[in-house]
Amino acid sequence: MAQKETSKSLEQYKLNLKVMYLYIKLEKNNKGKGSYMGENKSNDKLWGGRFAKNTASLMDKFNASIEFDQKLYKYDIEGSIAHAKMLSKTNIITEEESKIIIKGLQSILEDIERGKVTFKLELEDVHMNIEKLLIDRIGELGKKLHTARSRNDQVAIDIRLYLREEITNICNLVKNLLSSLIDIAKAHTETIMPGYTHLQRAQPVTLAYHIMAYFQMFKRDYDRLKDCYNRVNMLPLGVGALAGTTYHTDREFLARELGFSSLCENGMDAVSDRDFIIEFISTSAIIMMHLSRFCEELIIWSTSEFGFVEMDDSYSTGSSIMPQKKNPDVAELIRGKTGRIYGNLINILTVMKALPLAYNKDMQEDKPPLFDTVENIKDCLEIFNKMLKTAEFKKENMKKATKKGFMNATDVADYLVKKGLPFRSAHEIVGKMVLYCIERNKTIDDLTQEEFKNFSNVFEEDILQKINIENCVEAKVSKGSTSKKSVLEMIESAESFIDNFF
User: Fold this and answer.
1) Domain 152-400 CATH (choose: 3.40.50.300, 3.30.2350.10, 3.30.450.40, 1.20.200.10)
2) Is 319 designated active site?
3) Which residues of 67-80 are buried (b: 16+ CB within 10 A; e: fewer)?
4) pTM
5) Residue 290 catalytic?
6) Residue 192: which of 394, 389, 481 has the closest Cα?
7) DSSP structure string for 120-135
8) CA-CA distance, 146 to 34, in Å (whole number)?
9) Where are the domains of the chain?
10) pLDDT tens string 317-338
């Protein structure tokens, strides 16, 4: 009996040795790879369970987006609070658990805004950083927050919340600019200046008329921003990674909680497209194009060759070597930054152009061009408006410039047409008159009644009155023309637009 017990103990001992040997062998084979039987060395990653070894430090740096997407912290927490409420409402977590999670998120938001939080590169992005902070603060319960969502729909909601707010901010800046344009137009309904085509003097107009042309451009820009806002204001949260979720969630509740007007109807589309970003940057590029055109004119007008405008000292710079210089650097910088926004548009279009459905890591690169566009267009709109409001328009120089360039030539042709000549015949006669004046260093206004008669017997004594520059401006009676009556109608319409839409 004792021999049997000894034999049994020996067999157990051998078995234990064998198990220990296999364990040591397994540990040796997995050295540097993480251990199946020991602690997973990649557990610093919230997705690390699948992996047997840590990511390389170079991979951590290359893969991380926290350096730029930390800007989204407020929106990430806002979306997470709404998600926690929804999980409670649908009984996926308890109400008490939801309250603890929300309180934890709120405390994280407060600490971030007080500068008490340092985001970690190894946690990749703003979403994982905040989730890890939450788990550290409230324990295992924090791990429940990510139930029924993915980082794919999480980042989509963050960007939409951010962009929705920024479009509203940019609309307000456009509104301020539109108001300034109206004020300038009101002050210059009788300020006459050359109107140009091909940068050649063409016909006399008023400065108010010229300014109101830009009002129309920026008005359309505002309309495009509002239209873009409607497509940004669609809720992607709740669609999961791409295919939906097995939980009975309530996306309509999320939309109401976060103030979205509608839901993204297809999960794959919701997480994998960024056309709303492309549309916004495209709209921004158009705004910048309009700003750049205006800046180009102000730059030209501020030269001594034109002398139509002088920028205020507070929005100008000097030369390091030429003491007489006063440079319109604000206008030049805005003109230069336009190319930067164009580049951002090409950037995001190129990122998205060949991506299969659904989410791809390439889309992490959507945020730098978006953030850069938002910050630069806000800066440009704000400083352009202040520069424009303080600029001094030189009325006398503008009026004087209308005396050259035969700017009343079209009015002479119209005079002949109203006397019965076909327009093409009138055009030919006036063309010969202009050539005659050029050869003799005269203007049309300098011609005598006899000289007019030499070109056509149709001319009568009232011709000199008809071609007076002020009369040329006021003679325009068509809708949308440069006459004071027409410009005042434009201003009235513009004021109504602002009153009704802002």
Assistant:
1) 1.20.200.10
2) yes
3) ebbbbbbbbbbbbb
4) 0.87
5) no
6) 394
7) -GGG-SHHHHHHHHHH
8) 26
9) 66-147, 152-400, 403-501
10) 998 899 888 999 999 999 999 9
347-377 residue pLDDT tens: 999 999 999 999 999 999 999 999 999 999 9
d(CA 486, CA 58): 65
In a 3-state reduction of DSSP, which class is residue 322? coil
* Whole-Å CA distances, 320 to 300, 313, 418: 22, 16, 58
Q: Decide: 286 and 227 in contact? Cβ < 8 Å.
A: no
Contact in structure between 366 and 274 (CB atoms under 8 Å):
yes
Alpha carbons 437 and 433: distance in angstroms, whole number: 6
Q: What is the pLDDT of residues 463-493, one digit of tens each?
A: 999 999 999 999 999 999 999 999 999 999 9
Give CATH for domain 403-501. Answer: 1.10.40.30
Grouping H, G, I as helix, E, B as strand and the rest as coil, residue 74 is helix
Amino acid of residue 32: G
Query: Which of the residues 198, 248, 320, 478 is marked catalytic?
Result: 198
Per-position b or e across 213-251, b if 16+ CB within 10 A of its CB? ebbebbbebbebbeebbeebbbbbbbbbbbeebebebbb
For 449-479, b/e burial (b = at least 16 CB within 10 A) is eebbeebbebbeeebeebbebeebbbbbeee
Question: How many Å apart are CA 36 and CA 38, to the nearest integer?
Answer: 6
Residues 6+ apart with CB under 8 A from 266: 239
Q: Which residue has the higher pLDDT, 51 or 495?
A: 495
Superfamily of domain 66-147: Fumarase/aspartase (N-terminal domain) (1.10.275.10)
Give me the catalytic one of 57, 261, 319, 496: 319
Question: How far, CA to CA in Å, does 321 sit from each of 113, 324, 325, 368?
Answer: 45, 9, 9, 38
- Looking at every residue in the chain, the average pLDDT score rounds to 91
What is the 8-class DSSP label of residue 319? -
- 262 has which bridge partners? 234
Determine contact, residues 189/206, Cβ cutoff 8 Å. yes
Spatial distance between the Cα atoms of 126 and 136, rounded to a whole number of angstroms: 15
User: What angle do the packed helices 275-301 and 367-390 form, to 10 degrees?
Assistant: 30
Q: How far is CA 482 from the centre of its chain?
A: 33
Show the tokens assigned to 452: 């007019």
Q: How confident is the model at residue 253 (pLDDT cuts 50, 70, 90)?
A: very high
What dihedral angle (degrees, nearest 10) is formed by the CA atoms of 493, 495, 497, 499? -140
DSSP-derived pairing of the beta strands 192-197 and 200-206? antiparallel
Asked whether the beta carbons of 40 and 34 are under 8 A apart, the reply is yes
